[in-house]
Amino acid sequence: MIAKNRIRPTRNIFLVMNQTMGRKQFPSAISKVITSMEDLKTSMAVATKHSLWICHDKHLTLSLLRSVSWPSPSLGDAVFLHSMLPQSLPTVANCFTRFAYLARAGFLPITEITDALCAINKADLFIGGTVDHDSKTVTFWRGNFQTITVSMTSFEKSGDGTVPDFSKLLITDGGQSVQLGKYEAAVSAILYEFDPEYRRRIGKLRERNERSFGASLRRLRKQKGLKRDDFSPNISSKTIARIELGHVTQIRPKTLGLLAKRLGVKVEEIGDF
């Protein structure tokens, strides 16, 4: 889950919302919940280029733009969880370093979007998306504010016959999944296919993992025709899985000895496979 990849925010995060929304649902990382012009002016006075604005209320967003003193220093980054008028975009671009704007339905819920924007792996998460039926494309916003555009034809019918419904786009699972009606696609699969840099990075990671002790153990186990539960009762199948996946880096000598005995090799030979 994203929580384990989250970093503690070192910048102010402002949530601009109307007063009808409850406050208790919002993450503790939010520095200030803005519901009035007074809140807005106070926050703008302390905003810097490192600030993050999550704007849910369109009227307060327009008030923010009207309150800017020109020429404006950067107020930071912004996500607009409401529709934006095209004529407002140049103004927004002069206020914020990076920004994302979509219809609300295409974004992560407010309760998840802050975590995605502050995650260590934010570039590998989607915070929102929009469908352009004229060009037959779908554009996604990543947690680092970069975009990636793919053709609708990229979402092929799933194995059970489910077809994507492009009128019902949702980003779910903390930014790790895309839903198009009942159709679901993994963000990691989309990035792997359409982002060469992501593909190279994952390839290097997989190559490094394949040289690990866990990968060698897995290859040797399969070569010997053994299943993970064939090491029981001395070593549980769960422990074998954790070692092979690299979740265990410090393995006790006794465990190594039991592994070697069951595999029929010397302890020092396990890592050679």
Q: Overall pLDDT, averaged?
A: 87
* Oligomeric state of this protein: single chain
Topology pattern, helix = H, strand = E:
EEHEHEHEHEEEEEEHHHHH
Number of helices: 9
Shape: elongated
Output the radius of gyration.
24 Å
Number of domains: 3
Largest sheet: 5 strands, parallel
Strand fraction: 15-25%
Total number of strands: 11
Q: Structural class of the secondary structure composition?
A: alpha/beta
Query: Which ranges are low-confidence, i.e. pLDDT below 50, for 5 or more consecutive residues?
Result: none
The rounded distance between the terminal residues' Cα atoms is: 32 Å
Give the helix proportion (percent range).
25-40%
- Largest sheet strand order: 2-1-3-4-5
If you had to describe this structure to a student in words, what would you say it looks like?
It contains nine helices and eleven strands. The chain has 273 residues and is α/β, with parallel strands linked by helices. The protein folds into three domains: 103 residues, no CATH class; 80 residues, NE0471 N-terminal domain-like; 62 residues, 434 Repressor (Amino-terminal Domain). The protein has a five-stranded parallel sheet, covered by helices on one side. Strands 6-7-8 form a three-stranded antiparallel sheet. A three-stranded antiparallel sheet has the order 9-10-11. Helix 1 packs across helix 2. The mean pLDDT is 87.
